[in-house]
Specification:
The protein is of the alpha/beta class and 232 residues long. The protein is built from 7 helices and 6 strands. Strands 1-2-3-6-5-4 form a 6-stranded mixed β-sheet. A hairpin with a 2-residue loop joins strand 5 (148-158) and strand 6 (161-173). Helix 6 (174-188) runs antiparallel to helix 7 (197-231). It is flat, with a radius of gyration of 20 Å. The protein starts with a strand and ends with a helix.
């Protein structure tokens, strides 16, 4: 399993971003930076737990459900942009109560069943609470986007005080992640390019085809496991 993390923001970049903000924005970011470590602590703790769950599955089921994990903490500029985009007041209360994805992870699994197995195991941990759950695997977006989004509130200790920190986790298969990454690249990183109706139809079609491949590969894997058990 590969664990990827983003680096802390470059100081020069932060100075440049802060100069372009309003005084109100800068004050909020100043307050946020005092607690940013909480989000980084929570990400490290969650990453370790997921690795432990993956190891546990390997030990008991001879299968690693997690292919790899990616994690990141939103930059101050991205936090401010989201607050303004949502039309929220620029306050610390809003940052804590409305911005759930400051700490974010993607957990890429091999099979669809792996996703739900990992989530079921996470639900059994008493210091994790589910704040929001959106299943775009069983109920994909009209674009064809598939992923299971869950905001967990994780208990961590900071200066011997227990606090709950939200972490948004996107669970995807390898195929879902490939589609989402390429669709995002086309949609947001190709200046001036707009999807035609045919493009949108094709993207939805490709998503459906990849989903059927996911199901077929999963069925093949399950069949293999059953045959191995019968031969033991």
């Amino acid at each position: 399993m590969i664990l990827q993390k983003n680096a802390r923001p470059n100081l020069d970049d932060m100075v440049s971003e802060l100069q372009s903000m309003t005084e109100e924005d800068r004050e909020l970011i100043g307050e946020y930076l005092k607690i940013e470590k909480c989000y980084r602590y929570a990400l490290r703790e969650m990453s370790a737990r997921l690795e432990n769950l993956d190891d546990n599955c390997s030990l008991h089921f001879a299968h690693n459900p997690i292919h790899h994990i990616e994690s990141r903490v939103k930059t101050p500029a991205a936090i401010i942009e989201k607050i303004h985009r949502r039309g929220y007041p620029v306050t610390m209360e809003v940052l804590k109560e409305k911005i759930y994805d400051i700490a974010g992870m993607r957990v890429i699994c091999n099979y669809i069943n792996d996703i739900y197995q990992i989530v079921t195991m996470m639900k059994q941990q008493k210091d994790l609470k589910i704040k929001i759950s959106k299943d775009y695997i069983r109920n994909p977006k009209p674009t064809g986007y598939r992923s299971l989004h869950i905001v967990f509130e994780m208990a961590i200790y900071v200066d011997n005080i227990q606090v709950y920190v939200p972490i948004e986790i996107q669970f995807r298969t390898i195929a879902m992640d490939m589609w989402a990454s390429l669709e995002h690249e086309l949609r947001y990183k190709s200046p001036g390019y707009e999807f035609s109706d045919e493009d949108k139809d094709n993207l939805k079609l490709y998503s459906d085809q990849l989903y059927q491949i996911d199901l077929s590969m999963q069925k093949m894997y399950i069949t293999k496991i059953i045959e191995e058990e019968e031969n033991d």
